[in-house]
């Protein structure tokens, strides 16, 4: 699913002017991007920011080492670990590293180069300035860092039928796992106690059966034209805006 929002600035305010959902099957991204260009042409956007969902990014953690202060060595180690874990060519992916912290593992995010090329071409053809291509985990972590740095536990980032389960210590990721998400079987598990620590969830899905938004949920603030509950399908696209 491709979620798109047109957000306009009015001084310090941000107003959600338009929104659309563009579903596509595996291998159908080109048609979805064409539909997005046509939708964009009806508005007046000047720039675009992309937030990549769990299925479009591969994450891994590099163990702490003084030697990894050497950036070329750090990338070589990350690529070797990537190929060992995911059985894919690291050279076909661009890698982005989270900020290094002394004594802590460092998060690396890998994105397929063909996807980056598609996004770059789309921005050029739509005559938009490409401001950023960001992994969803990085965007959510930046938005809710003030909450997570006071806690330890697990954060579930749920996007459609996929979720990232991130175990962390005061906001510092310790383990990242990509898993399927089935609302019927997994939704109740998100309400289960997390030992030790706090279990939280950031989702683009409405709670099942009209249930109230869970107290442990990470939810965007309501804004001009945006209702955090009714517009949850756009949560990842708008994270950092509202």
Q: How does this model look, in words?
A:
By secondary structure, the protein is an alpha+beta fold. The protein has helices at residues 29-41, 71-86, 113-125, 136-143, 145-148, 183-190, 235-238, and strands spanning 2-10, 13-22, 47-52, 58-62, 93-97, 106-112, 129-135, 152-159, 162-169, 172-180, 198-203. Strand 5 and strand 6 (106-112) form a beta hairpin. Helix 1 packs parallel to helix 3 (113-125). The mean pLDDT is 91.
Measured by DSSP, the beta-strand proportion falls in 25-35%
Spatial arrangement of strands, main beta sheet: 10-9-8-11
Helical percentage = 25-40%
Order of helices and strands: EEHEEHEEHEHHEEEHEH
Radius of gyration: 18 Å
Query: How many strand segments?
Result: 11
Structural class call reads alpha+beta
The parts where pLDDT drops under 50 for at least 5 residues are none
Sheet of most strands:
4 strands, mixed
The gross shape turns out to be globular
């Amino acid at each position: 699913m491709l979620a798109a929002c047109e957000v306009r600035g009015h001084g310090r305010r941000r107003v959600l002017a338009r929104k659309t959902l563009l579903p596509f099957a595996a291998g159908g991204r080109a048609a979805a991007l064409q539909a997005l260009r046509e939708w964009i042409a009806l508005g007046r956007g000047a720039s675009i920011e992309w937030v990549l969902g769990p299925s479009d990014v591969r994450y891994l953690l590099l163990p702490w080492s003084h030697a990894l202060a050497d950036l070329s060595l750090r990338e070589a180690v990350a690529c070797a670990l990537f190929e060992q874990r995911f059985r894919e060519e690291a050279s076909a992916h661009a890698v982005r590293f989270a900020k290094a912290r002394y004594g802590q593992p460092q998060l690396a995010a890998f994105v397929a180069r063909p996807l980056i090329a598609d996004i770059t071409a789309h921005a050029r053809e739509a005559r938009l300035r490409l401001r950023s291509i960001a992994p969803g985990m990085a965007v959510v972590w930046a938005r809710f860092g003030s909450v997570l740095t006071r806690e330890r536990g697990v954060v579930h980032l749920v996007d459609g039928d996929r979720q990232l389960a991130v175990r962390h210590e005061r906001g510092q990721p310790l383990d990242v796992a990509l898993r399927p998400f089935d609302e019927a079987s997994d939704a109740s598990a998100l309400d289960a106690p997390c030992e030790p620590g706090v279990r939280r969830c950031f989702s683009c899905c409405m709670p099942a059966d009209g249930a109230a938004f869970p107290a442990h949920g990470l939810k965007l603030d309501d804004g001009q034209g945006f209702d955090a509950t009714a517009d949850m399908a756009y949560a990842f696209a708008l994270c950092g805006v509202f």
